Amino acid sequence: MSISLIKHGEDRMIIEEGPHSTIPEDEFFDAVETGLDKIEEDRQLRVRLKYQSQQSQISNAGSVHSTGNLEAEDEISQQAEDFGTGAQAQSHKLWPEIDRICTEQLTQARQGVGEDGNGWQLFADEGEMKMYRREEEVDGMVIDPLKSCHVVKGVTAREMCHYFFDPAYRNDWETTLEDVQIVDNVAPDTLVFLQTYKRIWPASQRDALFWSHMRRITDNLDVGANDTWIVCNHSNQNEEYPPANQGKCVRIYLTVILVCQTYLPPGKDSKTATRDDLTCKITYCSTVNPGGWAPATVLRAIYKKEYPKFLKRFTGYVIDQCKARPIMY
């Protein structure tokens, strides 16, 4: 994501992304940080306007049911008995890869950090939320694996994964998103997405093509866990899907897993628990190659600032969405 200034004549400069950057890294970081801050300000404004609109509708007779047909249809599709089992996706040619990657990522997510000198470094510690990274580069590009552990109240594992997986809600919490396309509707619990992200000057615009699978885990549950759900995302290069680095976008390559566990207090079960009884333990792991040419110091500075904001924003959004709804296990 470094840029080169190419002079054409006396009074014209073209800024382009390339490996021969002349812009100082601190100026590059400041420009990206300013762009991200502006996106966050716009998101907060949309949230306030949406809340005001909802309050206005609620005050009018007959408006209390205006939750939207899309959300209703989505929740119906997720009520099928085999949702989260992969049963409907197993005939798809991507299934062997999906099953293998999900199993590998869940195993890695369940491993601890720091106990065996495996290189994890704590970089954010805010109450229940702790974030670790391990410094790694491929061909000079930072791809530091990230691992986050968090605990929130008032939601279930399935609810947390539901809002992470379903594209109907993604624009509400993923602030840099410009567009989401479903390029392959494999099954209700398995989709292939092409996501385009907003351009943040001076970086080029990015996109990502990946499958996403939501699954209920039924084996090797942690002691005391009522249930466990995951969402796993992994980049895919299937020839049937839009190719990488065609046109204005640089392709991002990612592997992400969100692991969520529901815990209930002694004497409570899914039939008797209220929202006040719910505790959700979250593990979020990601490895992202942003493509292009990005100074390592700039990338790591951005990750250090933005990842904690992302996890707090997303979990806060889910808590807010669920607080007045029936509990979904």
Written account of the structure:
Its main location: cytoplasm. Pfam families: START (PF01852). Residues 116-314 form the START domain. This is START domain-containing protein. The strands form three sheets. Strands 3, 4, 7, 8, 9, 10, 11, 12 and 13 form a nine-stranded mixed sheet that branches. The protein has a two-stranded antiparallel ribbon with strand order 1-2. A two-stranded antiparallel ribbon has the order 5-6. It is 30% helix and 31% strand. The protein is built from six helices and 13 strands. The two termini are 42 Å apart. It is globular. Mean pLDDT is 82; it is low at 1-17 and 54-70. Strand 1 and strand 2 form a beta hairpin.
Q: Count every beta strand, where a strand is a DSSP E run of 2 or more residues.
A: 13
- Overall structural class, as computed from helix and strand content, comes to alpha+beta
Instruction: Please summarize the sheet with the most strands.
Output: 9 strands, mixed
Shape descriptor: globular
Bin the strand percentage: 25-35%
Radius of gyration: 21 Å
Pfam family, one: START
GO biological process, one term: ER to Golgi ceramide transport
Subcellular location: Cytoplasm
Protein name: START domain-containing protein
List the helices and strands and how they pair.
Layout (H helix, E strand, L loop, with lengths): L2 E5 L5 E5 L7 H34 L10 H9 L17 H16 L10 E6 L2 E5 L3 E2 L2 E2 L3 E8 L3 H9 L4 H4 L3 E11 L2 E8 L7 E13 L7 E11 L13 E15 L15 E11 L6 H27 L7
Parallel strand pairs: 10-12
Antiparallel strand pairs: 1-2, 3-4, 4-7, 5-6, 7-13, 8-9, 9-10, 10-11, 11-12, 12-13
GO molecular function, one term: lipid binding
Subcellular location: Cytoplasm
Keywords: Coiled coil, Cytoplasm, Lipid transport, Transport
